[in-house]
Amino acid sequence: GVGVTKLFPIQILGLTISNFTPGKIAEPAKALLLKMRHGTDVSKSLPSIIWERINDLLVLITLSLIAIQTLALEKNLLSIGFISIGIFAVTIALFILTVKNERFGKRIFGVFRKLPILNKISENFIDTFYKNKIKKRMILTGLLITVLPWLMEGYIFYFSLRAVGIEAEPFKLAGIIALAVLIGVLSSLPGGLGSFEAVMIVMLGIIGIAGTKAIAGLILYRFLSFFYVAFLGWLSFLYLSRHLDVKSVLK
Questions:
Q1: What is the pLDDT of residue 90?
Q2: If residue 85 lies in a helix (H) or strand (E), which one and from where to where?
Q3: What is the DSSP letter of 165?
Q4: CA-closest candidate to residue 50, choices 116, 11, 15, 98
């Protein structure tokens, strides 16, 4: 297997690429980077990446539901929130069916194989994909670990607001961030830029945080989370670019 230290730059670069694509559709880029850097077959790493995305969405949906329960959202925002949660709940179901049910999964792959570039997916790729089973213990461990970064997001925002003289509850902020992320991703704007901030400002107003200080705290939070990760992604690209075998993914 590939060690954690070797996976870190790939994870950061893959996350950065994904964040700058509409709906974060470039998540499989991590599998391609693993192939180019360490020779790991995409068909072997892709199931793990799918489960990572499933865990991520499960945590976001849970925190979003908690936010909806604890905040007095106006009707329009509440509707958008439930629509976003519903769409991503269906997405999770499709992901799980794809990795757990081979017959259903092969139909999904069949659809993808009709698309440009993805038409190179071979039967051998699909067979290898389903031969690699992820242990339930590893999936559960991944889910528990996934909770931590999103709770940390709440604390990053908490300290960002404190820096401008505003007090707030970190856990409540984590829920607000989660709901804003789901709505922002659904907007299909790269990184949810614009839509995420708009939703955040509205929900912050609901809990009594408004004005120029709130906007300043939000900008600081965005810099410390989204753009800081993007900077790390750029550094990871510089490091990995010297060691990537691009031709390996064309074979």
A1: 95
A2: helix 75-100
A3: T
A4: 98
DSSP string, 200-214: HHHHHHHTT--SHHH
177-200: average pLDDT: 82
Spatial distance between the Cα atoms of 200 and 215, rounded to a whole number of angstroms? 9
The whole-model pTM stands at: 0.87
Report the candidate in 7, 42, 41 with the shortest Cα–Cα distance to residue 28.
42
Cα–Cα distance, 189 to 21 (Å, whole number): 8
Using alpha carbons, select from 76, 53, 59, 50 the residue that is nearest to residue 179: 59
Return phi, psi of residue 211, to 5°: 95, -175
| Residue (of 46, 95, 60) closest to 177 by Cα position | 60
Q: Give dist(CA 217, CA 158) in Å, integer.
A: 9
Q: Compute the distance between CA of residue 90 and CA of residue 209 in angstroms, rounded to an integer.
A: 33
Q: From start to end of 82-152, where are the E strands?
A: none
Residue type (1 letter), 183: I
